[in-house]
Input
Amino acid sequence: MSKRTFKFTFGFSAVLVMLILVGGSCLPKPPVEGGGLNITLYGFSIMKESLEKAIYPGFIAKWKAEHGQDVHFTSSFAGSETVTNQILQGVPAEIAILSIDRDAERLKEKGFVTSDWHALPYKGIVNKTPFVILVKGANPKGIHDFPDLAKPGIKLIHPDPVSSGGAQWSILAMYGSELVKSEKQSGEQDTARALQTLQAIWKNVFVTPASAREARTTFELGNGDALVTYELEGLLMRESGKPMEIITPQATIFSEHPVVVIDRNVSVDKRAVVNAFVQYLWSDEAQQAFVKYHFYSVTNNALNEANLAFGHIAMPFTIDYFGGWERAYPEVIEQIFKNRVQNRK
Output
């Protein structure tokens, strides 16, 4: 999906209405339920494999065994900002798994989410993953940490912060990495160093796909020298035999991903199964599935330690380092990135 696909201008909206009226829709269609229930879930782009290959089948079998009822799933995946905008435009999502907590807040502000996802286990966070750098082959450009992405001649692929939650995590990873390292070295955050590094890196960004998954596809097609993305994208590429190397920065952020129920869209007859599925995401079975597909578990660190593919991060940090999303978005994404980096490229 390009980022233009989901800017709902008047012209596009009119075309969409016409398509619906003639019986054709660009939205996913639920399967024939055959007496069962269908759950519609919208997720940010990298959730696809773990959900469709392991977690849906596990929950379907569990619900059938316990209730004798068939459950089906309809899914749609895109950048987290795009998913959120789709829901705000009226798609029939009943559950959303988002890249950033700020998107859940947007849904709450507009009345689509009325329940408190922070009251769920682990404050609504179902899994996490660190941000890394992917490079071609045997790393011919000698990239070993985020500042190396600022070298002259580097062509960097980076998802679009307008449509991708992963892109916003990436910005926080690069900027925060320099803050963490400088604080470790001198006892104080060097904000000037962090800003200069981010500005220099962004000058080398030559394409901004709409989501982390689209950015990965662009890289897989042979474009660019490097890609900043979720670690699991690199591990999935490695499993498929792609010629690339995963560079784990000295300091990097763990992205944490919330689940929310789109209360406005959940009917009374589906509330029990929707709530049950959400709770299932923290079960041992689901957390094992997440780790199998290279997310970190939030409930059981032993599962993470058993996944030998995970890289070693010397100085990991989380969104709490910035004071949470309520501060990170206005202070870093807007004031620093948008005003002092992106607009001055």
Confidence is low (pLDDT under 50) at residues 1-27, 29-34. The beta strands are 37-44, 71-78, 95-97, 125-136, 156-157, 205-207, 226-230, 244-247, 251-261, 315-317. DSSP finds twelve helices and ten strands in the chain. The first strand starts at residue 37 and ends at 44.
